[in-house]
Write a structure and sequence with these properties.
Strand content: 25-35%
CATH class: Alpha Beta
CATH architecture: 3-Layer(aba) Sandwich
Oligomer: single chain
Strand order of the largest sheet: 1-2-3-4-5-6-8-7
Number of strands: 8
Number of helices: 6
Distance between the termini: 27 Å
CATH topology: Aminopeptidase
Shape: globular
Radius of gyration: 16 Å
Order of helices and strands: EEHHHEEEHEHEEH
Bound molecules: coenzyme A
Length: 189
């Protein structure tokens, strides 16, 4: 069993930001920017109804971190620890070996490197705090701000899939996976 974000020490601060596990009281602040088309167009869910969103937000608390600047929520991060693929005989060694991460930033706080700053800290949390050996993230290939962020973080484009991901607008879009290993992260610091 790997560690969970609830077991770590919070808040975690960076130069401009403070990160902490989300609570249900953050639902409204996150709803405010995730309902914007420029944000929601790339996310798995586009919230519509505040009440339904609050229920959904409560369900995803174990994987949700909010990012605050000067006491106000400016974005949120996703982190989910999971087992790596492994052959049967060694599967115990692959338990909780990797984490998927993600992000959303209020566009009013965009273009200042805040998402990069938060996600860079999230990598540290994943490798040092949660103890995973690999971190990965997926995105639509058309989501250039997101993959540019991953490249700023030093993550490697490992997969480019042709028309594998269905957008809610009905189009099958190209998808990408980026990843970074713990030893690569440590060398890059
Ligand atoms: C993905 C997302 C978080 C990126 O936001 P962003 O504002 O581009 O990212 P950052 O906060 O790191 O800012 C980077 C920009 O600030 C600039 N910048 C300014 N100061 C900076 C600094 N100190 N450090 C790094 N970048 C800085 C960078 O040059 C970059 O601008 P550019 O893209 O014009 O080159 C945002 O677009 C978003 O929330 N999208 C919707 C949700 C989404 O797509 N989530 C991911 C689904 S896979």
């Amino acid at each position: 069993m790997g560690r969970t974000i609830a077991e770590l020490s919070w808040p975690v601060t960076t130069e401009r930001l403070s990160l902490r596990p989300a609570t249900v009281d953050d639902a409204a602040a996150v709803f405010a920017y995730r309902t914007l088309d420029e944000v929601g167009q790339w996310l798995t869910r586009l919230p519509r109804d505040p009440g339904a969103w609050r229920v959904r937000f409560a369900e995803r608390l174990p994987t949700a971190i909010v990012v605050e600047r000067d006491g106000a929520v400016v974005g949120d991060l996703f982190v989910r620890v999971q087992d790596a693929w492994a052959q049967h005989e060694v599967k115990e060694r692959a338990v909780a070996a990797e984490a998927e991460i993600g992000w959303a930033l209020d566009p009013r706080s965009g273009g200042q490197g805040l998402a990069t700053e938060a996600a860079r800290e999230l990598l540290r949390i994943c490798f040092e705090g949660l103890g995973v050996r690999r971190v990965f993230a997926i995105c639509f290939a058309a989501n250039e701000p997101s993959w540019r962020l991953m490249e700023r973080l030093g993550m490697r484009r490992e997969q480019y899939s042709r028309a594998d991901s269905l957008h809610r607008d009905g189009r099958w879009l190209d998808g990408m996976t980026y990843a970074l290993l713990a030893d690569e992260w440590a060398r890059g610091r």
